[in-house]
């Protein structure tokens, strides 16, 4: 067999796609042909490099799950934001109406203000905790 004929088979030889007979032809030729042996070595290196590159890149599935996570997190963040704005506006409006109402006694106003203040502070502390946890998560994500 000529070198040109063997070279056609070399890729298939590496991928174990040849028949037993073809494998024997190639191996017989390789034992006394340095040129084809070199070609085979180069092919082997190229294939290994390609395989490593493929392994380093995330698969399509991984990309998709990453996108889903970003989408989920983004949607949730917007949801929280809308909820917070709604709560602040609603409570703020209610508190303003109550505080400026001339019919309610001052003592009751102070009581309700205390209630709002307490809940408000608890809410803020939870919010700050969430924000800190999220930053922590992001930091951990960078390390990984
Ligand atoms: Zn050869």
List keywords for this structure.
144 residues; 2 domains; mainly alpha; binds zinc ion
Describe the structure in your own words.
This protein is mainly alpha-helical and 144 residues long. The chain has two domains: 3-56; 60-143. 88% of the residues lie in helices and 0% in strands. It has helices spanning 3-14, 20-31, 34-56, 60-100, 106-143. Helix 1 crosses helix 2 and helix 1 (3-14) packs parallel to helix 3 (34-56). The protein is rod-shaped and about 110 Å long. Residues 3, 6, 29, 33, 35-36 line the site of zinc ion.
Largest sheet geometry: none
Order of helices and strands: HHHHH
Low-confidence stretches: none
Give the CA-CA distance, first to last residue: 53 Å
- The amount of helix comes to over 70%
Number of domains: 2
Count of helix runs: 5
Query: What coarse outline follows from CA principal-axis ratios?
Result: rod-shaped
Quaternary assembly:
single chain
Q: What structural category do the secondary elements indicate?
A: mainly alpha
Number of strands: 0
**How large is the radius of gyration?**
35 Å
Mean pLDDT: 84
Instruction: Give the distinct bound molecules.
Output: zinc ion
How much of the sequence is in beta strands?
under 5%
Secondary structure layout plus pairing:
Layout: H1 3-14, H2 20-31, H3 34-56, H4 60-100, H5 106-143
The structure holds zinc ion (ZN).
Zinc ion binds next to helix 1 and helix 3.
């Amino acid at each position: 067999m000529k070198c040109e004929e063997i070279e056609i088979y070399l890729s298939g030889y590496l991928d174990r796609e040849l028949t037993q007979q073809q494998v024997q032809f190639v191996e017989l030729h390789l034992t006394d042909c340095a040129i084809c042996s070199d070609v085979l070595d180069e092919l082997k290196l190229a294939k290994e490099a390609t395989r490593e590159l493929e392994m380093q890149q995330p698969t399509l599935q991984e990309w998709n799950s990453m996108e889903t996570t970003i989408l989920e997190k983004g949607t949730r963040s917007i949801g929280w934001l809308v909820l917070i704005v709604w709560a602040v506006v609603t409570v703020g409006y209610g508190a303003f109406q109550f505080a400026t109402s001339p019919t309610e006694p001052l003592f009751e106003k102070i009581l309700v203000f205390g209630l709002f203040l307490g809940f408000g502070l608890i809410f803020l502390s939870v919010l700050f905790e969430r924000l800190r946890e999220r930053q922590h998560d992001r930091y951990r994500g960078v390390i990984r």
